[in-house]
Amino acid sequence: xxxxxxxxIADVRxxxxxxxxxxxxxxxRSLIMAPIGxxxxxxxxxxxxxxxxxxxxxxxxxxxxxxQLAGTAIENAxxxxxxxxxxxxRTLTLDAGRMGTWALDALGHRLETxxxxxxxxxxxxxxxxxxxxxxxxxxxxxxDRVRAAIEASLAQGGDYHVEYRIxxxxxxxxxxEARGRPALLLGGGVEGMAGVTxxxxxxxxxxxxxxxxxxxxxxxVEERTRELVETQEALKQSQKLEAMGSLTGGVAHDFNNLxxxxxGSLDMLHRRQIGGEREQRLIAGALQSADRARTLVQRxxxxxxxxxxxxxxxxxxxxxxxxxxxxxxTLGPQIRLQLDIAPALPHAIADPQQIxxxxxxxxxxxxxxxxxxxxxxxxxxxxxxxxxxxxAPGAYVVIRVTDTGTGMDADTRRRAVEPFFSTKGVGRGxxxxxxxxxxLALQLGGRLTIDSSVGEGTSVALWxxxxxxxxAVRPAPGVATAAVAGTVLLVDDEDLVRASTADMLVDLGxxxxxxxxxxxxxxxxxxAGAIDLLVTDHLMPGMTGVELAREIVAxxxxxxxxxxxxxxxxxxxAADLPRLEKPFRQADLLAALTxxxxxxxxxxxxxxxx
Length: 610
Prior knowledge:
five-stranded mixed sheet; Beta-Lactamase; 610 residues; 15 helices; Heat Shock Protein 90; alpha/beta; 4 domains
């Protein structure tokens, strides 16, 4: 067996290959042994005789043939066992992977399937499952794609791999993944195709959930990014407007101090008729320009939210109806004015004069946006959903000016409230109308909103805080026709302003004691005798006008006080404290003095609230 050769022993007692006593106790005298199995023998087939002798080649051949048959039988048994074990492992593997097997005949489209495959399609594992059943189960929208994949694999000999949807007899929707390869004939043709199927419904559901989650996440990221960009843009615009407001407020303060002596001096020259007709015409023109500059400064202060305001309950209906004629005249004959006032509106807390100026500016802007005519609607309603306008919860009145004009694009709408921004061209406006209205609304605790699209007109809304009930409007003090004699302590740190104001007071018949600061005014007070009136600037180095007035009134109770302010940051000024805004003419000064000297309320009580 070691040499894979048949061994012939003619006599076991004389053959040196056989141990001497190997067969002594047996009948064996001669033998033949043939190995069983190739290439490695696994056994041997032996024939034994009781007589010695050489038995011839026929016997040897017959024994070798029997050994060969025995080897073939053993090998077949081994192969059958291996195949059975392989099939068991294959079945175990397919079952573990929930894969069903199938085979398709290329000619007759005869389909053979495993029980697992039929269960995957929702079928009875013991019932037949034909190719027609298979095609009927595939979703209609996937049938052409599945049929094309099968035909391509059979025609080209390539791998078959496709995912498709099916509907089970119970009505369930499933996803199936099929993989297969064509079975080739010896001559090179395609006999059919065999492969496996697996239910991938769970994977598809998870993929769809992930896709939706990714899409939702992407959408949320886009929304948050857009919100962040909008917030950053709004913050940038707010910071820019705040910086511009601080700048314009400071410029307005200095401008008012410069305009006060200019307007005062021109007013005095005009009243005294200094010079001839030509000189008076020049003085009148300069005075008119100075008044226009004062209006410009007021608009700057309105944008900067630093204009002096006297908020009071205002009836929106009465205010709008009272301005209707003026607005209609401003608009001209080509534009129709329409009023839309809601009934039973609450009063708005506002400065009526400033609101009238804002509405007039908005009407002028609307008129310029309708060069071919149109309709302007001024409405007043209760403010619904203040949060949408960026306001705190509460009651609001919304006064809205809506036109049918050219409208604004996004960039124009974004920059509309910037001071000096205008689309009207050079010389056709200051660009302060919307910025003034914007600043006024914010200063009153409200907001200005703009809705506009190109070609669809513009709607500008003033959101104003609503009050409970109306209060009688204070009548403007009448201008006295004669000066009231007395001594005035005049305090102002600006020499030109103080000198101009002193000239006006002297011209009115007052005796004037001047001081550059609060400390100097207190020293002059101690030196002077009777003082009939204190006229003081508010913002001064070291001591404000209110602080000075409080100190002087403490020393001399009941002394009338008039505070002059050229700046809206009059911190500590009570709303009802008598004051005069710079710049002013002599008539303005006289009206303010008349109101102070004739007023019943003592200044010390008002200063106590300042």
